[in-house]
Amino acid sequence: MQPNTPRQPGAQVRKQPTPPLPAPTPNPNPGAATYTLVTEPDQGLTPIYNLLSSAKKSIEMTMYELSDTQATTILTTAAAHGIAVRVILDQNNEKANNTGAYNTLTAGKVSVHWANAAYACTHQKAITVDQATSAIMTLNLTSEDYATTRDFAVITNNSADVAAIEATFNADFTNAGITPPTGQDLVWSPTNSRSALLALINGAAKSLLISQEEFADTGIQATVEAALKRGVAVTLVQENLGGKYSPVLNTLKAASAKIAIFSSKTGYYIHAKTVLADYGTAQSKLFVGSENFTADSLDKNRELGLIFSDPACMAGVEAAITADYNKGTKF
User: Fold this and answer.
1) pLDDT tens digits for 263-274?
2) What pTM was computed for the model?
3) What is the C-alpha to C-alpha distance for residues 86 and 63, in angstroms, rounded to an integer?
């Protein structure tokens, strides 16, 4: 799981980073892009493994937590076949957990970089293959969580977004400063995620369907309350282990939000971070990404999500989160 609890860092291996690959040239017609939703735990990790295995030239991965040995085997196998493989792993919170993968990948000739310590943490979960296709994910590559955790990934060939992800990866791989380009859809922390999410919630006219692991940001809370007061129907599926977010949930419930919670340390776990606004209307929009509703996530971490309007992806998220609401404990 991924709550931002610092863990004791281990020893860092210093090495010269591999020079970045040239940035891809954006397709002049990004409107032709495709989006594919991967829903966890329903679909399993095969779509992600297949994406990694499809690489012919390059793989770039930024990952908060990496312990999945099947994923690391695919990466080292790709490197052994001459594919340029580069990986950024979080060190501020997850260095102890990521050191095994770091060592395995380094031994397998993968270029690995401990993430820039200037961020509170690097919580992004993203994969780009052949500078042409990117997966933007809510899930970490931690196989022990797959069977019981609600998560999503969006796989896209939107060339403007892929180019923006690559440009940011190249900077982050060398700890270079960058204001990440947003492409057509992208939501980055710590730059535009707060403004983008507030605009999405503020723009809702009829409904908001939200899933969150962490909900502690007062700005997001106030914006959801304002939506309720102007008549927007808000449904929230929230992980609430130990009643951590009950004060926020009580306030939103008093404003007429419909809320279902999950709170088992070992059972089904809401790890997805999604906002679906005005589903079923011409104005509907969907956020999927790594950003939680916390100040650190929005303002201090490296995070990545996207806001877009693909009908099939919106339908998939709506079906999954509605099912979670129906089986959750009503708050």
Assistant:
1) 998 899 999 999
2) 0.91
3) 11
